[in-house]
């Protein structure tokens, strides 16, 4: 599944949040979206997954025009891992994950054996099998985020959007979630905060600033000290991490 | 390691969480509903032996004859049971089920555990309508007066809830917070108008009627009032039982619901309008009966969890049983006096709510 965003613009009142952005995720790539707070990356993602209606532009998932398709049809193909939130009413972990089957089910259809095994499989993948009967609201932040991920896994999407799912999580959980997602072998578009994690996990990066794409390319090509200085307003040096050989960034001073 | 942690952490889940357990719960509740409906007709100013009540009801419903035919068709108890008490018990059953259904739906639709069937300004709108009808309108014109009160109460309820819906969607998207606040505003406004009418009304008897009306009563129940209520409530029950996936998604919030393929906006509005209509019909025929729609859904959530597939059937039956028995208390607790049922539901409901607050394991909406 390829995702292509063509000339997308979003504005609220008279503020243009996203200005004529185009981007592409080719077959099974892990593509990262980075940029400072308020650069419009979350708004861009929300308009791709139909929470916000863009003023202009189209989004295609392979042949399907997401802007013109019903949420249900879209949800059968596209999974979205957002940030977890507290619920007003509690569910068990298993009930939460089982809701991932919603787009595949008719109004009156109840969950069958196959759904049950999909749900169990999703719980196993995020390592929460033992918590199936626990109440969702009693879990820790890292566990809640993994439940949300499991719900999206139960949706069996062919493409996944991660809307800053690793914010506020300990590094262990950030790594866990990114590892699980990376192993899925489907196309991913992820808004990420941590630049070194983005460099490590992403095949390709789009850098946003003030609602526009400031740069795009392979992580090692574009994550230069000049670009980081210009986009994030932070002076830094980049280096090869002596242990992992991956890209390292040493932040020096905010400008 | 992991399993140790799980075992230590207090498993704050519903009491019943297996499929088998749930089927048992529904079975028990169904049997209790039927037994309650039969037993409740025995109590009142005149006590009638339960066995005789059952035989009379059985004979009237199915034609099966147990015992003396004379006793079953023309005994002195027959009229009391068949013409007065049984329609009233059925009314309690449908109103209890309907209020609980509407409460559950409202709590999901506005994602607020404090929501009840009257949250959309229905209570004050209906009060205003009834006050108007009793003190100004056609209140004193006999039979027309009675239909007048019911009609105006219904009109007030539906009018107020439409106003709330319009107000909540003014200036962009309708959110649950805006709905709750709009409900409060309309409530305050309608109450002010109603008080205005009461203050200037020089009609002590009328004011007493208004007061009695706002406290709720099933005393006016009769066979000819049942069809409207029962059809409305039963249709709503079937409709919402089919909506369990949407209702569950509602509890996750708008964004998560969209990513699961459900755009909540239209559903929420439709649910509100249906609930407002049903509540309007109920309020028009029996006044305001508080606490039922608020507390029963919470109580049953503690028992079977938040999944509407289980919550709805269990809470509807629970609500029906609850109201049948509170009505029995209302008409028997003080000899020769019929208490407004709203007083009883509040007297039972408030301590139950307190118990749930104090008891660990159920967190209403917030995190405990």
TrEMBL record, chain A:
The protein's UniProt keywords, in alphabetical order, are:
ATP-binding, Nucleotide-binding, Transport
Instruction: Write out the GO MF terms.
Output: ATP binding; ATP hydrolysis activity
Coiled-coil region: none
**ABC transporter domain sequence ranges:** 3-235
> What protein name does the entry list?
ABC transporter
**Source organism of the structure:** Paenibacillus jilunlii
Taxonomic placement: Bacteria, Bacillati, Bacillota, Bacilli, Bacillales
From TrEMBL, chain B:
The places in or outside the cell where this protein is found are:
Cell membrane
Transmembrane stretches in the record are 20-43, 86-106, 118-143, 149-167, 179-201, 221-242, 273-299, 311-333, 339-358
Q: Which residues lie in coiled coils? A: none
In the record, the note on similarity to other proteins reads:
Belongs to the binding-protein-dependent transport system permease family. FecCD subfamily.
Is RNA-binding tagged as a keyword?
A: no
Per the UniProt entry, what species is this protein from, by scientific name?
Answer: Paenibacillus jilunlii
The principal location of this protein is membrane
Single GO biological process annotation from the record: siderophore-iron import into cell
Q: What cellular component GO annotations does this protein have? A: plasma membrane
Keywords, A to Z, come to: Cell membrane, Membrane, Transmembrane, Transmembrane helix, Transport
Topology in membrane: Multi-pass membrane protein
Q: Which InterPro entries does the record match to this protein?
A: ABC_BtuC-like, ABC_transptr_permease_BtuC
The UniProt entry, under Gene3D superfamilies, shows: ABC transporter involved in vitamin B12 uptake, BtuC
The name this protein goes by in its record: ABC transporter
* PANTHER family, per database record: ABC TRANSPORTER PERMEASE PROTEIN MJ0876-RELATED, FERRIC ENTEROBACTIN TRANSPORT SYSTEM PERMEASE PROTEIN
* Record GO terms (molecular function): transmembrane transporter activity
Specify whether 4Fe-4S is a keyword of the entry. no
């Amino acid at each position: 599944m390829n995702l292509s965003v063509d000339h997308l613009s979003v504005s609220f009142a008279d503020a243009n949040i996203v200005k004529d952005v185009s981007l592409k995720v080719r077959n099974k790539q892990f593509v990262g979206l980075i940029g400072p707070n308020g650069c419009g990356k979350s708004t861009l993602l929300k308009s791709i997954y139909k929470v916000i209606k863009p003023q202009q532009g189209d989004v295609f998932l392979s042949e399907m025009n997401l802007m013109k398709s019903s949420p249900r049809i879209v949800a059968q193909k596209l999974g979205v891992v957002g940030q977890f939130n507290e619920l007003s009413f509690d569910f068990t972990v298993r009930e939460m994950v089982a809701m991932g089957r919603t787009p595949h089910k008719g109004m009156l259809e109840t969950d069958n054996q196959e759904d049950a095994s999909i749900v169990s499989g999703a719980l196993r993948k995020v390592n929460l099998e033992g918590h199936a009967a626990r109440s969702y609201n009693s879990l820790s932040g890292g566990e809640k985020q993994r439940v949300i991920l499991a719900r999206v896994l139960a949706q069996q999407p062919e493409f996944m959007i991660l809307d800053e799912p690793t914010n506020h999580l300990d590094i262990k959980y950030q790594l866990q979630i990114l590892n699980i997602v990376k192993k899925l072998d489907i196309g991913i578009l992820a808004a990420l905060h941590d630049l070194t994690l983005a460099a490590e996990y992403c095949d390709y990066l789009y850098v946003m600033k003030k609602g526009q794409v400031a740069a795009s390319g392979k992580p090692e090509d574009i994550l230069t000290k000049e670009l980081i200085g210009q986009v994030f307003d932070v002076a830094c040096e980049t280096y090869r991490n002596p242990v992992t050989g991956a890209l390292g960034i040493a932040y020096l001073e905010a400008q | 390691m992991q399993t140790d942690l799980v075992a230590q952490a207090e498993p704050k889940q519903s009491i019943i969480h297996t499929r088998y357990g749930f089927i048992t719960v529904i079975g028990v509740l169904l049997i209790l509903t039927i037994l309650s409906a039969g037993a409740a007709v025995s109590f009142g100013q005149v006590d009638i032996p339960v066995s005789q009540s059952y035989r009379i009801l059985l004979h009237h419903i199915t034609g099966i004859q147990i015992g003396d035919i004379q006793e079953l068709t023309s005994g002195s108890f027959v009229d009391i049971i068949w013409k007065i008490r049984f329609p009233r018990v059925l009314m309690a059953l449908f109103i209890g089920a309907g209020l609980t259904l509407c409460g559950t739906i409202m709590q999901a639709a506005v994602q607020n555990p404090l929501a009840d069937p009257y949250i959309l300004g229905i209570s004050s709108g209906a009060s205003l309508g009834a006050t108007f009808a009793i003190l100004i309108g056609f209140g004193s014109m006999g039979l027309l007066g009675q239909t007048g009160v019911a009609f105006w109460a219904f009109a007030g309820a539906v009018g107020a809830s439409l106003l709330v819906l319009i107000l909540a969607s003014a200036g962009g998207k309708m959110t649950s917070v805006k709905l709750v606040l709009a409900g409060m505003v309309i409530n305050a406004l309608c109450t002010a108008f109603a008080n205005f009418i009461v203050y200037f009304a020089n009609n002590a008897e009328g004011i007493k009627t208004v007061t009695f009306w706002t406290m709720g009563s099933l005393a006016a129940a009769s066979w000819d009032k049942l069809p409207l209520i029962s059809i409305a409530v039963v249709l709503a029950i079937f409709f919402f039982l089919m909506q369990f996936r949407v209702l569950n998604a509602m509890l996750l919030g708008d964004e998560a619901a969209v990513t699961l393929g459900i755009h909540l906006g239209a559903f929420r509005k439709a649910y509100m309008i249906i609930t407002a209509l049903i509540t309007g019909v109920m309020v028009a025929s029996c006044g305001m009966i508080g606490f039922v729609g608020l507390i029963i859904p919470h109580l049953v959530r503690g028992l079977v969890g938040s999944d509407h597939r289980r919550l709805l059937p269990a809470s509807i039956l629970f609500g029906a049983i609850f109201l049948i028995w509170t009505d029995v208390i209302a008409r028997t607790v003080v000899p020769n006096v019929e208490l407004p049922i709203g007083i009883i539901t509040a007297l039972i409901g408030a301590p139950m709510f307190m118990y749930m607050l104090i008891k660990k394991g159920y967190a209403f909406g917030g995190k405990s």
